[in-house]
Amino acid sequence: MPADILLTVLATAVIQSVFGVGVLLFGTPLLLLLGYDFINALSVLLPISIAINCLQIIKHYQFIDRCFYKKVLIYSIPLVIGFLFFVSTAKVNIGLLVGGFLILVALKSFFPAIEQRMQEMVKFEKTYLAAMGIIHGLTNLGGSLLTAIVHAKGYDKNTTRVTVAICYATFAVFQLITLIFIGSQFELSYSDNMGFLQLGVIVFLLTEELLYSEIDNKKYTQLFAAFLLVSGILLIIK
């Protein structure tokens, strides 16, 4: 079991256990920097991401914003699938744009002008969700835009996390199906992948009990804003 992947899974699983995203959003660029190709990074991270999200969905399924989820299914998922087919040849670096956008979202609670602009942007939700699908299919950075739009809706912490989780899990499921359909070859063994998957589940269970349950709605909103801010900065640096 490669130690570099193990450490990546540990760190990103904690983040996803709290916020609903993280394994793909941060794990993908980390594994690429460590020398793994995009397809093999996905083969490791997708099952872990799906498992953590499913546990979050099972626990708080009654809080899901089903109307928003249906829109994601219609406007994002087909584009995730389509653009994943081209990912091996597309060389698109949109980290700077997405990173700057996340910083703006994180600062909306402190600046009324930004808050107003965010509300105007959400009115074009269909276009936003389509763009999110394209970006996720090409780069795996769609989780950034997903967390941004859900955060802008002002949900409580359980609704925020589980709505993000079900959308993110759906992204991952369709990505995995697409990779299998096109016959992608994965280098890591089945036993290693299962080991990483089990590790991700254990991290979730510990994080849920020791961290998430101790955070109230106000603190969660603040932490989520900080998460978006840090995500934006990291994307710009990358």
Topology:
Layout lengths: L2 H17 L3 H11 L4 H23 L5 H10 L1 H8 L10 H12 L5 H11 L2 H15 L2 H11 L4 H25 L8 H21 L6 H21 L1
Helix pairs in contact: 1-2, 1-3, 1-11, 2-3, 3-10, 3-11, 4-10, 5-8, 5-10, 6-9, 6-12, 8-9, 9-10, 9-12
Descriptive notes:
There is one protein chain. This protein has 238 residues and is an all-alpha fold. It has one domain (3-237). The chain is 78% helix and 0% strand. Helix 1 runs antiparallel to helix 2, helix 3 (38-60) runs antiparallel to helix 10 and helix 3 packs parallel to helix 11 (190-210). The two termini are 27 Å apart. The mean pLDDT is 83.
Write a concise keyword list for the protein shown above.
78% helix, 12 helices, mainly alpha, 238 residues
One letter per element, helices H and strands E, the order comes to HHHHHHHHHHHH
Tertiary shape:
globular
Structural class: mainly alpha
Q: What's the alpha carbon Rg, rounded to whole Å?
A: 17 Å
The pLDDT mean sits at: 83
* Strand-residue proportion: under 5%
Termini Cα gap: 27 Å
**Care to count the β-strands?**
0
Characterize the largest beta sheet: strand count, sense, and whether it forms a barrel: none
How many domains, in number, for the residues?
Answer: 1
The residue fraction in helices comes out at over 70%
Number of helical regions: 12
Which residues sit in consecutive blocks of at least 5 with pLDDT less than 50? Answer: none
Please provide a brief summary of the model.
With 238 residues, the chain is mainly α. It is built from 12 helices and no strands.
